[in-house]
Write a structure and sequence with these properties.
Elements (H helix, E strand, L loop, with lengths): L1 H14 L17 H5 L26 H18 L5
Length: 86
């Protein structure tokens, strides 16, 4: 929970609190994230930007969302390390 709050704080500084959607129910995602999260403080983040259905032949993404995601992740990392230039 602490890492999630840290991430939300960093994201809010970049995109504003209104741009953050907190998912209330877990997904049945098939990846190994939970194994990593058992070992180190973690939070799972989904970056929005899809303009069409995921995993479909017409998938399209707003590439501007990638730059925003990078900015949020950099802010989060710098804050975590105590080196934020913001």
């Amino acid at each position: 929970e602490a890492m999630t709050e840290r991430f939300i704080s960093a994201a809010a500084e970049v995109i504003g609190r209104e741009g953050i959607i907190i998912q209330q129910k877990p997904d049945m995602i098939g990846d190994d994230f939970s194994y990593f999260a058992e070992l180190v403080p973690s939070c799972y983040v989904k970056l929005g930007g899809a303009r069409s259905s995921l995993h479909s032949s017409d998938f399209d993404v707003d590439e501007g969302s990638i730059a925003i995601g990078v900015e949020i992740m950099c802010k989060f990392a710098l804050d975590f390390l105590g080196a934020s230039p913001y």
